[in-house]
Design a protein that fits this description.
Blueprint (H helix, E strand, L loop, with lengths): L2 E9 L4 E7 L2 E6 L8 E4 L4 E2 L3 E6 L12 H10 L2 E6 L10 H14 L3 E4 L15 H6 L6 E3 L8 H12 L4 E3 L5 H4 L15
Parallel strand pairs: 1-4, 1-5, 6-7, 7-8, 9-10
Antiparallel strand pairs: 1-2, 2-3
The structure holds zinc ion.
Length: about 200
Amino acid sequence: MTAYLITSVSVVGAAPTDLLIRDGVVAEVGPGLSAPDATVVDGAGLVALPGLVDLHTHLREPGREDAETVESGSRAAALGGYTAVCAMANTSPVADTAGVVEQVWRLGREAGLVDVQPIGAVTVGLAGERLAELGAMADSAARVRIFSDDGHCVADPKLMRRALEYVKAFDGIIAQHAEEPRLTEAPRCTRVRSPPGSA
Ligand SMILES: [Zn+2]
């Protein structure tokens, strides 16, 4: 059994009080608490908040373990007060199958620091052409409920409609990268300027 007594901490911005945590659960809140078995942490000047959730995280694994891993990202999240992170799908390979999302989910469990919830791709390879295995990802051990082609817009309205209809069956969410590619593509022609002094 682990116990922590955080003293004089402002719980969600309220007046300072004491907070007793036993086995990771808030057991008591109130001024002047005592718990001889607890490790005392001075919380003066600090604010206690519920665990934060990051809905848009890039853990880079699999594929770019040189930049970040599920373990290192989990560690950074925990240090920042996050208890859950949603891992974006633009890994290599892309998280567009049950196999990849389960891998990320399992690595998160193994790291054991925060809840790592994989976000599945909406389309195969984030390419915006064919729907990814939305149902298989939802049914997998990772229980994916959020899908996004993060960084890429699902620009085909018919494909988006099918994705929205599909995820309705299991109360899923499609998070769109809101960018209309026809308005943001590079200009087709470059203006050539005459050199100075020329006619
Ligand atoms: Zn992103």
